[in-house]
What does this fold into?
Amino acid sequence: MKRIGIFLLGMVMVASLDAQQDLRSKQFNLEKGLAIEGYDPVAYFTQHKAVKGDKANAFTNQGVTYYFSSAANRELFKKEPSKYEPAYGGWCAYAMGAKGEKVEVDPETFTITDGRLFLFYNKFFNNTLKDWNKDAQHLRMQADANWNKFYHP
It folds into this structure.
């Protein structure tokens, strides 16, 4: 009887983890389960530029798959994923702050502030990074508050 209880508890824990991962993957900006359109999240910090990752260096963290440009970057990410994951699930930081909306991004339009990666929409003559820079502190506070409405870990 005790073994059945332990087995059932284990099944509930696995189901709960799967549900959390599924919810997280629905909250993040993903294209077919892939984050940042395949760009390497670590390269933003180490190379200070957007670098395409390689499927051969893929890693999935809590239901979100990232590509890395090198095995070394993948290993850095594995050690501390929260350090490298983009803010607001990879949605446009400006739109999250200004309107509380999830808006697609251009992975090559970014900034790193206080150790956080922020991505921005940049299409059709509308580079939201420029607008963000005009009032970054206020927009960041608003974006943090708005993201909490969407993201429930």
Notes: Strands lie at 30-31, 34-35, 54-61, 64-68, 106-113, 116-120, 122-123, 126-127.
